[in-house]
Each structure stands twice: as C-alpha cells, then as structure tokens.
Amino acid sequence: MSALHRSVDERGSLPDAESHSEGFRLTREARRGAVVEDYVELIADLIEEGHEARQVDIAARLGVSQPTVAKMLARLTNEGFVSRRPYRGVFLTDQGQKMASEIRKRHKTVEAFLVWLGVRPETARIDAEGMEHHVSEETLEAFRAIMTKMRM
C-alpha cells in the first residue's frame, strides 16, 4: 500500500498538507540519523563485549568498506560522539554513550514487542534494527504499556 493510501483518514480524505508533510519530514530525519545511531550502537556493543572498536571490525560488522567507516568516524568525531586515538580503537564520548543507551532501550522495546506478538526472536532482532530509528516515543510507550497490561 502506498504512503498516500496509508495517510487517508477514516472518511477517505487526506489530512491537511502541513500535518501530512510532518510524517514525511520525520521519516527523512530518522533516515539521516539512523546511520549515525547504527555506528554509535555498534561501537558501544564492541566495547561492551570487551573488544576495541576498531575501524576494520566496524566495517566487517556493518558490511561496508573501511574508507566508508573512516568517513563516518570523522563525522562522529566532529559531532562529538566518538574520540579516536592514534593506533588505538574508537571510544564513545559521554554524548555518544548517552545516544547508545537510548538506542539500545528503543531496540530492546521494539524487539520485545515483536517477540510478544509472536515473531521469531531472530526475525524480531533483525526487524527491530530498522524500526528502532523510526518509531516515536509515544508508540514505544504504547508497546510497553500493552505488554505490561497483558502480562497481568
């Protein structure tokens, strides 16, 4: 179903242009931030596992080239999410650690909700990897609330 059809209200008419465009704007914004969030989350995961977050490992796990990783690490450094030391790995700044924590929480909520719905854990993990960047805080709270209510 196209975005146009999904946006039609119960009366069969489109919302006003301003509110209609808000959804598309938020989606574009989430897409731009998703790559940054993926890198920060992976760096946190590598460090937590007791490994250094090295450029070669990041490239292998994300399935991208090392020059791509180098370019993104420069961006993440400039934006204050990571610090790098010569001949050492990549480290998260306080700002990067905060982002990683928030993304993990979002990921865990989406993944738990999908499993709660009956999705296989492996599929839920993969699906949550993309959904975590696009779901609103309001929706995450609804996921948490229904799971809590239904556990009673």
UniProtKB/TrEMBL annotation:
<dbReference type="GO" id="GO:0003700">
    <property type="term" value="F:DNA-binding transcription factor activity"/>
</dbReference>
<feature type="domain" description="HTH dtxR-type">
    <location>
        <begin position="37"/>
        <end position="93"/>
    </location>
</feature>
<comment type="subunit">
    <text>Homodimer.</text>
</comment>
<dbReference type="InterPro" id="IPR001367">
    <property type="entry name" value="Fe_dep_repressor"/>
</dbReference>
<dbReference type="InterPro" id="IPR036421">
    <property type="entry name" value="Fe_dep_repressor_sf"/>
</dbReference>
<keyword id="KW-0464">Manganese</keyword>
<keyword id="KW-0963">Cytoplasm</keyword>
<comment type="function">
    <text>In the presence of manganese, represses expression of mntH and mntS. Up-regulates expression of mntP.</text>
</comment>
<dbReference type="InterPro" id="IPR050536">
    <property type="entry name" value="DtxR_MntR_Metal-Reg"/>
</dbReference>
<dbReference type="InterPro" id="IPR022687">
    <property type="entry name" value="HTH_DTXR"/>
</dbReference>
<protein>
    <recommendedName>
        <fullName>Transcriptional regulator MntR</fullName>
    </recommendedName>
</protein>
<keyword id="KW-0238">DNA-binding</keyword>
<dbReference type="Pfam" id="PF02742">
    <property type="entry name" value="Fe_dep_repr_C"/>
</dbReference>
<keyword id="KW-0678">Repressor</keyword>
<dbReference type="GO" id="GO:0046914">
    <property type="term" value="F:transition metal ion binding"/>
</dbReference>
<dbReference type="GO" id="GO:0046983">
    <property type="term" value="F:protein dimerization activity"/>
</dbReference>
<dbReference type="InterPro" id="IPR022689">
    <property type="entry name" value="Iron_dep_repressor"/>
</dbReference>
<dbReference type="Pfam" id="PF01325">
    <property type="entry name" value="Fe_dep_repress"/>
</dbReference>
<dbReference type="InterPro" id="IPR036390">
    <property type="entry name" value="WH_DNA-bd_sf"/>
</dbReference>
<dbReference type="GO" id="GO:0003677">
    <property type="term" value="F:DNA binding"/>
</dbReference>
<keyword id="KW-0804">Transcription</keyword>
<keyword id="KW-0010">Activator</keyword>
<dbReference type="GO" id="GO:0005737">
    <property type="term" value="C:cytoplasm"/>
</dbReference>
<dbReference type="InterPro" id="IPR036388">
    <property type="entry name" value="WH-like_DNA-bd_sf"/>
</dbReference>
<comment type="similarity">
    <text>Belongs to the DtxR/MntR family.</text>
</comment>
<feature type="region of interest" description="Disordered">
    <location>
        <begin position="1"/>
        <end position="25"/>
    </location>
</feature>
<keyword id="KW-0805">Transcription regulation</keyword>
